[in-house]
Amino acid sequence: MPNQLTGAANLHQRARQILGEACSRVGLDSTGAELLRLRSNAVFKLREPIIARVATAPTAAERLPTVLAVTRWLADRGFPTVQPADEITDQPLSVDGATVTFWRYIPTTPDPATTADLGRLLRRLHASPMPLFPLRALKDPLAGIRTTVQHQPGVLTHDDQAWLSRRITVLTDAWQSLPFHEPPTLLHGDAWIDNLLRHRDGHVVLGDWDSVAAGPREWDLIHSYHGERRFGLSPTDVNDFAAAYGYDLRGWDGYETLMQIRDLYAIGIHVRNAPGDPFSRRELTRRLTSLRKGDARKRWHMGDS
User: Which pLDDT score is estimated for 5?
Assistant: First the structure.
């Protein structure tokens, strides 16, 4: 079984080892690489103006060629996206169970991007035509957590595992009946404000396309509303997002059901990481407890504060 990067310390150490191997293969220097983000991926800034992303999800090797293709296609159409470092022709690289990609560095300003910025970019993205190459279809957003719950013995109590399995079944059936707008559109898949970068010249760029897919626009929109319920966005943030997008999801008939699906989806990363990550173990308990109590407003956390 490939080594999994779980736990903050283990992830950082293993990711640096993988980064070093990947860089040596393509003639880059990983010495002094700066860690920028450590979540499901490890993101590094090299001495050169290049970003390296070390992805550890089981589906990364399959998905990342499409991610590279989509971002190239969008950039060619003038959409403000992060772009692959195409001088590196061998990517994505498979290294010791992880998948590594290289991207052009974007010099940023301290001024944060806003939910209004996100709304404008998503409106533009969803109005784009579909690319001619195949995209993953978002038909079952809970497939990942279903597999995780079934294959993580020792992480969940028997009672929690049984409850999650039942809940996944109920909400998977509910997803199939949601009144989505047709036809499917090009989705970012993880359309969260933290995936925006503000360039030094002021324009905003959308990054982290690992979950790109074809599917209902509501999946991209729900992230910001979920952020207000769980991750500290304000009502003003959500109102600004809706105004910029030109549509308020709160008036849609499937809103509450989709919010519950998003809640359950957000458990998966912590079930996967709990064996080696103390934060994920704590956060998994927090999230599961609130879900089982029916507490739809309990604050959740992205990382240790």
Answer: 46
